[in-house]
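Quick log. Single chain, no ligands specified.
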Amino acid sequence: MVHCFGGKDRTGMVVALALSIAGVPRAEIVADYFLTKAGLAPFLAEQLADQPDESLRAELIEFGDTRAESLEAILDHLDRTYGGPAAYLRHGGLTDAELAALHDRLTTTELRPGAEPAGPRG
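-> predicted structure:
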């Protein structure tokens, strides 16, 4: 489990990097990230309702927004600067063995004892 307060910035990056290592196509990673917008909409609505200063609402909306193009820009940066997500993680200290272990952990089809199979995404 990975989470942070809003679940879109740090969490979104960690999940995007992990999905990339798992071999998930970039378009699917970005689409998955964009789903966060709908999930956070009730939280943003609550924040806006609780904000008495109307001049701060635009900033709240901007901060709370989840844009596919934001993750695209980050992934483009990783490609240009490091050669992609795996190279970025290597630069940060992960070894090839650790990247392989992450890949295997995320792509295995075997269930651990007592685990339930995941249902279809959607």
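Confidence is low (pLDDT under 50) at residues 118-122.
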